[in-house]
Write a structure and sequence with these properties.
Elements (H helix, E strand, L loop, with lengths): L6 H15 L9 E12 L3 E10 L3 H19 L9 H5 L9 H6 L2 H15 L5 E7 L4 H18 L2 E8 L13 H14 L1 H8 L8 E8 L5 H20 L1 H4 L7 H8 L13 E3 L3
Parallel strand pairs: 1-4, 3-6, 4-5
Antiparallel strand pairs: 1-2, 2-3
């Protein structure tokens, strides 16, 4: 009977896939980047997708800076180190982030806004690059295809290869959930099915020229610190563009200014020749 790999076993399998995915033609001086992607936007007007790009040799340093931010918000506000940071919940006062009801009651809007600023201030010290791609295409899979095409161009320009991690289900159960073999199989099959449109984008690339290697590695944000990081960046990038371009995004919903202030902390990591870190794909 098939049982989907869980926990440490799945992490080992992922590591093996990364090693196998690396092109054998790479020399010692060639680069490879890990690319963490998350989307934002709205269902009526369009989609933005943000990429956090990290050269493989810098991965540990980038994660270390992010974790320093996690330690600071734990010291200052009591935000638990293993609690998922989700921008929409953080800025809109949803979810509990602290250990006790008393701490959660004190974790109001000012401290939630400060949490975003602290985290992205630390990340901005790390060797990484961020690019956000925007389009009026409302289909996430079609918008993803356009962003991947743009990232292929970026990889050619920078003479590198990309391994993509995208926010999505991995087939893992919740940490406290009792998992039967049947439930494990169901979770795994759901994850494989949901990832199909994104796999097809990668498999549609020209195998003789492509710079994006392997299928997208789906990473559930609950278990990935760097997917949480790019979620925070993506949310701020979208709201900044929404603020500056109401003719695209409309005015029916409010701009989250606290997210914009946090996003501005990353300005030294924005890709050059962009509009405050964003490339509009519909031009």
């Amino acid at each position: 009977m098939f049982v989907a790999p869980q926990g440490a076993q799945q992490r080992r399998l992922l590591c093996w896939r990364i090693v196998e995915a690396r092109p054998t033609s790479l020399g010692h001086d060639d680069q490879m980047h890990l690319c963490y992607i998350d989307d934002s936007g709205d269902s009526k007007h369009g989609v933005t997708l943000t990429a956090l790009l990290i050269e493989d040799k810098d991965w540990s340093a980038v994660l270390d800076y992010w974790l320093k931010g996690r330690r600071e918000i734990y010291r200052e506000f009591g935000v638990l180190k293993n609690r998922e940071i989700h921008a929409n919940h953080l800025y809109k006062g949803r979810k509990s982030y602290c250990e006790t009801p008393k701490e959660n009651a004190r974790f109001g809007s000012d401290k939630r806004a400060a949490t975003g600023r602290v985290l992205l201030s630390w990340l901005a010290k790390a060797p990484c690059t961020t690019i956000t791609f925007g389009t009026t295409e409302v289909s996430k899979s079609k918008a993803y295809a356009r962003a991947i095409a743009a990232l292929e161009d970026w990889a050619v320009t920078n003479d590198t290869y990309l391994l993509v991690f995208y926010d999505g289900q991995q087939g893992l159960a919740a940490p406290d959930e009792e998992v039967t073999a049947e439930k494990s199989r169901e979770l795994w099959e759901t994850a494989i099915r949901d990832a199909k449109p994104y796999r097809e984008v990668h498999r549609g690339l020209d195998i003789t020229e492509r710079r994006i290697i392997e299928d997208p590695m789906m990473q559930d944000s609950k278990y990935s610190q760097l997917i949480q990081a790019v979620d925070l960046i993506a949310y701020g990038a979208f709201h900044l563009h929404k603020q500056n371009h109401p003719e695209i995004w409309g005015t029916s919903s409010a701009v989250v200014r606290e997210a914009i202030v946090a996003y501005m902390k990353m300005k030294n990591r924005w890709e050059t020749n962009t509009e405050k870190g964003l490339i509009w794909l519909d031009r």
